[in-house]
Amino acid sequence: MLTLLEKFIQKIEEYNLIEENDRILVAVSGGVDSSVLLNLLEKVQDYFKFSIFCATVDHGIRKESKEEVKFVYNMAQSLNVECFIKEFDVPLYAKENKLSIEEAARKLRYKFLNELAEKINANKIATAHNLNDLAETVLFRLARGTGPFGIYGMKPRNGNIIRPLLFFERKEIEQFATENKIPFVIDKTNFDTKYTRNFIRHKIIPIFKEINPLFEQAVLRFVENVWELDSFVEAKLNVETFEFEGRIFFRVPKDEYVLVEFIRRKTMEHFGRAPDKEKLDRLKKNLYKTSFKISFWGNYGVEISYGYGVLGKFMEHMNYEYSMDCQNNVNFGPFVVKFGNNGIIFKKMDITIRNYRFGDKTKGGKKLKEIFVEKKVPSFIRRIIPVFVDEDGYVFYIPNVFLDRDYLAKEENGIAIKVEMKGGFWF
């Protein structure tokens, strides 16, 4: 039978959690799970050839927390691991942002961990979630009404987060700590059933264990199957995307299921939560429309128009205006206007580049709004695309949409203009 250390190495290799030259930031609270994790990683450091750092947080919730932070710092020092400390006033943050204490602590903690990882050039963050935590998460999410790919909540590796202890029950970890004389602190709030997770841990799971004493192992088998299915679906979501200033532009896939699952996953990945099923159902019901918006939360949601979409904060008109000097490249959101030898050659004149405005017309009298509809320009692109206007206020050029050939010139006596959209999206 494998020892916990041997099994720990096996799972790291099986799920490719650690690679040579990794720089891993370990989140340590001082509890048995995170204390064992730090010690295990220190033991396998030479085997996998990586560097470790320690981070601990005083959430400002309990009077014992300052002593626990000091405990973690001393333990890290004894292992010759650099330790970073951060203090937060979680109760105040929770009150100001209308969050539960648990959610506020999690948000602040992960914000700190990610910022610190970037600062010290750590490419991975290790947390000490174990199999019991996984079982609690499954029950919690099931009770909240999650879908099949949201039920597990945690993976051994998710982005830059790794969870090497996810396959181990808490009793195994406690036994390893005892056998190897690894010190740890006990957080008394872990027994307070007013917190949802503690209620599940101490009241609900014992009932399931009456049905199946190996309940946690049963959950693991179920979740491993979902992980495999999740990986299969992820590979099928081959959607063309481009990201700019916190928004995700994408070409709408033909398959309705692929679209909805793509939006759900991208929202989780970038914004930390998934849209409600009711919002996703509304999205499916609106797919017959040419253009529409679905708000997920306030000013955040998805907009789809003429086969293209954007996910994030809804886009407003940019309201810009620029008189060309033909010297420097100019950025208009994701669009770049370049001057030089390449591009379309226009007559030399006073040219203004600005956003679309109601009532814009061409010299021939055609309304710009009509051109946008004819050319099937996505509604959100209309708000940001550069519009070229002559000295009389007539629109003569919109990249990839409209070109008045009366304004063209020969190379030797004209101005070369080229417009690109970052990521090649839509163009």
Automatic annotation (TrEMBL):
User: DNA-binding: is it a keyword of this entry?
Assistant: no
Which GO-annotated molecular functions does the record name?
A: ATP binding; tRNA(Ile)-lysidine synthase activity
> What EC identifiers does the entry list?
6.3.4.19
- GO CC annotation: cytoplasm
Which coarse location class describes where this protein primarily resides? Answer: cytoplasm
* Localisation: Cytoplasm
So what does this thing catalyse? cytidine(34) in tRNA(Ile2) + L-lysine + ATP = lysidine(34) in tRNA(Ile2) + AMP + diphosphate + H(+)
Is the keyword Iron-sulfur in the record?
Answer: no
- Residues involved in ATP binding: 29-34
Q: Which GO terms describe its biological process?
A: tRNA modification
* Keyword annotations of the record: ATP-binding, Cytoplasm, Ligase, Nucleotide-binding, tRNA processing
Specify one Pfam family.
ATP_bind_3
Give every Lysidine-tRNA(Ile) synthetase C-terminal domain span.
351-419
Top enzyme class, one word, equals: ligase
Report the sequence similarity comment from the record: Belongs to the tRNA(Ile)-lysidine synthase family.
Q: Which PANTHER family match?
A: TRNA(ILE)-LYSIDINE SYNTHASE-RELATED (PTHR43033:SF1)
Quote the record's domain comment. The N-terminal region contains the highly conserved SGGXDS motif, predicted to be a P-loop motif involved in ATP binding.
Summarizing the function annotation, the protein's role is: Ligates lysine onto the cytidine present at position 34 of the AUA codon-specific tRNA(Ile) that contains the anticodon CAU, in an ATP-dependent manner. Cytidine is converted to lysidine, thus changing the amino acid specificity of the tRNA from methionine to isoleucine.
Quote the protein name from its UniProt record. Answer: tRNA(Ile)-lysidine synthase
* Organism per entry: Thermosipho japonicus
